[in-house]
Amino acid sequence: MGSAQPGTVQPPPAAPTMLNVMAKSKEKLFEVACPDCGAMLKIDGSTGLVVSHTPAPRKRMFEDLETAAKAMREHDERKESIFRQSVDAERNKADLLEKKFAEALRKAKDAPEGKPLREFDLD
């Protein structure tokens, strides 16, 4: 406690502050894994910028070529089935519209003539 005046109290030595810790760590590169995609990022401690990026390894959708080909065939069959259903619906569309029109026409003929009554008119 060398040069302190008698009767004065010296503060304890400074504890490591965040600035001191960051100053030491600025010389380092940090490796961080992205929690979303699993990629590895190298970050410069002094600038806080990404130095390098290593993408996460891609997962294989299929184990082998046979299962991939089978999935493609099934997908093609589903597309063909949906297309056939839409063609059939389009063929029957005219008949369906005619039936709906005939039903609406019948309801219109059965409805009473004149203006429709409103609740306001009943008062």
Describe what you observe in this structure:
Among the domains are: 21-54, no CATH class; 65-110. It is built from two helices and three strands. The chain has helices at 18-25, 65-110, and strands at 29-33, 40-44, 50-54. A hairpin with a 5-residue loop joins strand 2 (40-44) and strand 3. The chain is elongated. It starts with 17 loop residues before the first helix and ends in a 13-residue tail after the last helix.
- How are the strands ordered across the major sheet? 1-2-3
Query: How much of the sequence is in beta strands?
Result: 5-15%
Query: What percentage of residues falls in helices of 4 or more residues?
Result: 40-55%
Please, what is the average pLDDT? 80
List keywords for this structure.
alpha+beta, 3-stranded antiparallel sheet, 123 residues
What's this model, at a glance?
This protein has 123 residues and is α+β, with helices and mostly antiparallel strands.
Topology:
Layout: H1 18-25, E1 29-33, E2 40-44, E3 50-54, H2 65-110
